[in-house]
Write a structure and sequence with these properties.
194 residues, alpha+beta, five-stranded antiparallel β-sheet, two-stranded antiparallel ribbon, 59% helix, elongated
């Protein structure tokens, strides 16, 4: 993670594409340990492996690609609700350096709003299906939950980067990199909603 300060005193916390991909790759093991491994232990290793093999079909791959779109839409929807500024403050794109889609909010927001927008897809598409998989003994839900929790690895890393900031401080989603810009609300004349 790089912390930069430009001549105007603006502080940025960013993570470049190659490093982001490395951290996301390193998250595979811990995410497997909290999702697939306990599930396979409780439901049988061979049974879990067999079902995962049968799940992976072209239709499943297409569903995952659609899920990536839903993941990004959940970021947008959450920030649109929290900031009450509508769709005009949301931009979508694809970062070729990290080979990942992204959703960018062009408005400054409180740290808690940034965190909630970052948490939403991983929680709804990753954690909830994983928890349901244990209740329903569903290999499909467990595997899909793991994949979408791993797809949220950039969000997890971003939340780790922002963890020490006061929840009522302001940040601006970085327009070009994975990360954020620390914002002085007085300088930007932000309307606060307490």
């Amino acid at each position: 993670m790089e912390e930069l300060q430009n001549p105007n005193g603006v502080k940025e916390k960013i993570l470049k594409g190659a490093k982001l991909n490395l951290y996301a790759f390193l998250l595979i093991a811990p995410l497997l340990l909290i999702s697939v491994v306990p599930f396979a232990y409780l439901n049988g290793w061979q049974n879990t492996y067999f079902h995962i093999k049968t799940i992976i079909t072209p239709v499943f791959i297409l569903a995952l690609l659609f899920g990536i779109v839903v993941h990004e839409a959940l970021h947008a929807f959450t920030w649109m609700l929290l900031l009450r500024k509508g769709f005009k403050s949301i931009k979508f794109g694809f970062n070729l350096h990290s080979f990942s889609p992204y959703t960018h909010c062009t408005l400054p927001m409180k740290v808690w709003q940034y965190k909630l927008g970052g948490l939403t897809p991983g929680f709804l598409m990753g954690i909830i299906p994983i928890l349901l998989s244990f209740v329903l003994s569903s290999v499909l839900l467990n595997f899909v939950g793991f994949l979408f929790l791993w797809a949220a690895s950039g969000d997890i890393i971003s939340l780790f980067m922002i963890r020490k900031l006061d929840k009522n401080s302001y940040v601006l989603d970085h327009p070009d990199e994975m990360g954020f810009i620390l914002v002085d609300k007085d300088e930007l004349n932000i309307e606060t909603e307490e």
